[in-house]
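User: Teach me something about this protein's shape.
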Amino acid sequence: MSGHSKWATIKHKKGAQDKARGKLFAKLIRQVEVAAREGGGDPESNPSLRAMFAKARDSSVPLDTIERAIKRGTGELEGVKYEAINYEGYAPNGVAVIVECLSDNRNRTGSDVRSIFSKSGGSMAEPGAVSWQFHRKGVVILPKKVSEDDLMLIALDAGAEDLQDQGDTWQLTSDPSDLGRLREALEEAGIEFDSAELTLLSTTTVPLDTEGDAKRVLRLIDALEDLDDVQNVYANFDIPDHIIELVEA
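Assistant: First, the predicted structure itself:
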């Protein structure tokens, strides 16, 4: 399992408790609001908002809740002003980590993130220290209910750049601007997918070949994601499927 996208999918498929679902809703609503503030409230002319709108709906966020978030972003409704802040660091075993936050209190958020890195055996890094190892892409994770040839025929015409075998799933990647087109093509073809979102993919990976190493890294990742201000966490680990099975158990 390479990187964080598939780990997030695994956790989602295991089923979130009400508390976890509520936390996810809050994060998605915040992302919708900021996307609307930065690019306008029309999803058709704001690709970031269109992607966040779709992600929120995929997670069953009520439509009226999303619409209120858009209105807060455009200033039609009063709301808290959030600032986008990124942090970089290293998890155990030298795994590179990028933490994307939306915060109304930079000092609080920075302190919380630094504390988790320290307590989990990791360390913070200077801006730019690890970000060069990642590039932003559209990523679609699909169950293997469709053949590779059939999937490639549809995906390539819709802007997909690559298809990778992730064991029990396929991973399609695209330029960020083509994610919406790729998603629509899959939906029109009746092809189910687990997730479709903009993400950061690593150009290099760090192998974690023991259960202990995997647990240490994933413990840090999960702790960061549990912070209210943290929206996304990206890491360049590579964990074999048999190790993931041990971790899940």
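Now, about its shape. Residues 12-18 have pLDDT under 50 and may be disordered. The beta strands are 83-91, 95-103, 123-125, 134-143, 160-165, 169-174, 195-202, 206-207, 230-235, 237-238. If you'd like, I can walk through any region in more detail.
User: That's plenty for now, thanks!
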